[in-house]
Structures are given as C-alpha cells and as structure tokens.
Design a protein that fits this description.
The protein is of the alpha/beta class. The chain is 43% helix and 15% strand. The chain is globular, with a radius of gyration of 19 Å.
Length: 314
C-alpha cells in the first residue's frame, strides 16, 4: 500500500481524470504528489520522460494523461489519436519500469471492448471481436497500453494494473463545441441555447444508444482503492452498472440546465456503439461501489460549467 508520504506521480493532472485523482489523494492525506504541466514535460518526448523519471524516481504512478475526444474528434483525427496516445503511454510505462517504480496504474476506456460485446461487458471480452469503427484508433492505443502493463508483469514481475472506466463526466471536463464527449457537449449546447433563447436544439443520431456514466470523483476513489488493494494482469472495469438512453440523458440534461425548447434528432449522424454497459462485479467483489447518482452528478457538472467560464470557452 502507498504510504502517506510516498512519492506519487499523477500524469495528466490538468485533465478531468487526473485532477480528480489529485483531489482524492489530497483528501486521503497523501502529501508527496508530483505533477508536471505539458509545457514542463511533453510525455510524447521519450528522452524528456526518461530524464524526468531518472530525476524524480516516483514510487507510484497514475497514468491518466491521454488525448481524448468525442465521436467527431475520434473519426477525423485517427492518426493523431493513435500516435499521441501510444507514444505518451509507452514512454511513461517504460520509464516507470526502467526506474524501478513500485506500482503503476494505467487508465483506459470502455471503448477497448468489442462493438457487439456481450452486455454487460466483462473484462474477459477484450479482443474477442471487432471494435467500434468510430473510435478504433483510440481503442487500439489503449489496448496497447494495458497489454504492455500485462506483459511487463509477466516478463519482469512488475505490479502494473489497468482500470477501464465507462463514460465519465464531472468537474474540469472538456466543453469544446466539437471535440467533447456527450455529457459536456449537451451541457454546453443546452446552456447556450437557453442563453440565446433558441427555439430548438439538434442532437446527433436518433437517441437510441444506451450508455453508462460515472462521476469522475467516484472513478478517482476507485483508482486510489485499486492502487492500494489490487494486483493482477486483467483490467478492472469502473462504472455504475446502470445505463440510460442518449435520448433520456438529453432530456435530463436539458431539464437540469433549464432549456425548454424543442429537441430534434439528426439521424444522418452516427450513433456509435449501440450499447456500452460494463460488468462491474469485479470492483464490487473487492468492496468498492460508486456513490454519486447520475442526476446529482449532472447537477454538479453543470455547476462546474457555469462557475468556470474560461474553461467553458475552450
């Protein structure tokens, strides 16, 4: 287990997941947290990453850094998503191993599982059939990261673990108008529609896909829990075990934001994977469970959005 003064490096501390992990570590009394901005350390630069690990020698690493985005970003920047994610994760994982890091935790995504995986998706369904095409490049990069952790464990006896979150939302999310995920995209769209008194808002697809959502602070709590209590080659799913249709989610967000106009659907745009529900029985069997329900979490996310106008403009 991590000691309260163990040197802990959180890669990606400015992102939604990384910042939540830092909050959770501080909440639990950890005092020796190492962070670097992108300007201070470019994780795609192997030499810079190696120098950082050689100098700092972190004992524990949370690898939450990633290039992320929604359907549009993933399908239009395929090469960028694969290259940047594979470079940064391989550099960090390899440098951690070379420099004797005690334990590393790799953060992935539920998009690693097949498009038509059994529902709910168990960890064991990885690589059993084809991926969803709209985010295949990102998924392949994440699969490579978790497999590299597994292979280091098997070949060199390291203790590197992987966590696969479901769809995340919450404080410090990315609200970019075209590069964000569904929850922040809806929050921004309905907020701006309300502010501008727009009569209608058009959403992509037909609203039928089913999705699971986890508040990011719940994920951070699980990440710290697993760092202290889990060792194994198989990844651990992080979710709620509950799902909601995109149409129902859209109505819920509109209600929370206070938008009362008409919601229309553009069925010419992609829906993405029909259903993505994680089997979270492994995490539950270890004694962990999420605490924030979707409506409460969405209200907190909207409060974060309106209280941070500079972030909302990104």
């Amino acid at each position: 287990m991590m000691l309260k003064d163990s040197k802990i490096y959180v890669a990606g501390h400015r992102g939604m997941v990384g910042s939540a992990i830092v909050r959770e570590l501080e909440k639990q009394g950890y005092t020796n947290i190492v962070i670097r901005t992108h300007a201070e350390l470019d994780l795609t630069n192997q030499a810079a990453v190696n120098d950082f690990f050689k100098t700092e020698k972190p004992e524990y690493v949370f690898l939450a850094a990633a290039k992320v985005g929604g359907i549009e970003a993933n399908r239009t920047a395929l090469a960028d998503f694969m290259y940047e994610n594979m470079m940064l994760e391989m550099n960090v994982i390899h440098a951690a191993w070379i420099n004797g890091c005690k334990k590393l935790e790799f953060l992935g995504s539920s998009c690693i599982y097949p498009r038509l995986a059994p529902q709910p998706m168990p960890e064991s369904c990885l690589l059993t059939s084809a991926l969803e095409q709209t985010n295949e490049a990102y998924a392949l990069a994440k699969i490579s990261g978790l497999k590299y952790c597994e292979y280091l464990n098997r070949q060199y006896g390291t203790s590197y673990i992987s966590v696969m979150p479901t769809n995340l939302y919450g404080p410090n999310d990315n609200y970019h108008p075209s590069h964000s995920h569904v929850v922040p995209a809806l929050i921004r769209r309905f907020h701006e529609a309300k502010e501008n008194n727009l009569p209608s808002v058009t959403c992509w697809g037909d609203g039928s896909p089913l999705r699971e959502f986890l508040y990011v602070d719940d994920l951070a709590n699980l990440c710290v829990f697993l760092m202290n209590h889990y060792t194994g080659n198989e990844t651990v799913n992080a979710g709620t075990g509950k799902e909601i249709s995109i149409k129902d989610l859209t109505n819920l967000v509109a209600n929370i934001v206070g938008y009362t106009g008409k919601i229309e659907w553009d069925s010419t745009m992609p829906n993405g994977t029909p259903r993505k529900l994680l089997d979270v029985s492994k995490a539950l069997s270890m004694g962990w469970k999420y605490s924030i329900e979707l409506e409460q979490g969405l209200r907190l996310a909207y409060e974060d959005f309106i209280s941070n106008p500079v972030r909302a403009e990104r």
